[in-house]
Amino acid sequence: MSLYDVITIGEPMVVFIAEEFGKLKDVKLFSKGLAGAELNTSIGLSRLGHSVSYITQLGCDPFGEYIYDCIEKESNINKDYIKKTSKYTTGFYLKSKVLNGDPDIFYYRENSAAANINSKFVQNVKLEHFKHFHVTGITPSLSENMLNSVINLVKIAIDKGLSISFDPNLRPQLWESQEKMVEVLNYIATFSDYIMPNIEEGKILTNKDRPEEIAEFFLNKGTKNVVIKLGEKGCFVKNHNISEYIKGLKVNRVVDTVGAGDAFAAGFISGILKGKTIIESANIGNAMGAIIVTHKGDNEGLPTLSELEKFIKSNNKVII
Ligand code: KDG
Q1: Distance between CA 110 and CA 90 in Å, rounded?
Q2: Does pTM surpass 0.90?
Q3: Ligand 1: nearest atom to the Cα of 93
Q4: Does position 302 have pLDDT exceeding 50, yes or no?
Q5: What phi and psi values does residue 95 have, to the nearest 5 degrees?
């Protein structure tokens, strides 16, 4: 019997967000925040009322302590699989402030605590306690150790009957080559019940241009459902029965696009876990993405269930 809804694995970081426009090298003032794609999704799910377990390793340093304190404040995130080490340090990154488009980012995360998590510890995770495993393409890029751990976990999760969502989250700067990135991520895609790349990522992974062709590529490889995120336009959903564009929700002002995909994942997974259809779930994902882009942090704006419902109502949608 499952004790918890979702399990995920990844690297949490501290993010320093520029408080003034300009190149990162010139910025004098930064504010501190919490980051990490899988952690963002965990926070989103937790605030929507789902129980989540997050597998990671933190350094015994001020960044690690800060991240741990932040996670403690999220009432539905279980910390059984959060390890601490004094051997390696916690990663962090810098993010620029922009008026339009995606900000510049710069990582300080090589050989971090999370990249060095003990693979035996990971393999001893009790996946049978969960319903769903959420994976992103960032985690396998962190080290060979993490890559093998993720692939093993995916295979065990399938054996134990968990459903699997996969956000490729391309980070070319973290991979030794684009070829390896594409090969590994397309391999993980074959095991996924739900893959959710954005359109640019879909193009890189498949060498195709149109959402329909990108989706077809993954379906032919064995992925069961494909959700392609199209930014403000919404998303495109395809499986062997459905092929549909789903409109995005309007927002007044986009402040920061980082974290939108993670928020989408939280909303989408939440819908699936509640037995909603893939289209209803994608609508919830769209709403979560729309909310988060109006906030500067990677996860601060993630809503509670009642805040999400209010936002959806104000957009005249009835989806949850
Ligand atoms: O998706 C948002 C993430 O990009 C951010 O929180 C930091 O995990 C991160 C990464 O690797 O870029």
Answers
A1: 10
A2: yes
A3: 7
A4: yes
A5: -135, 130
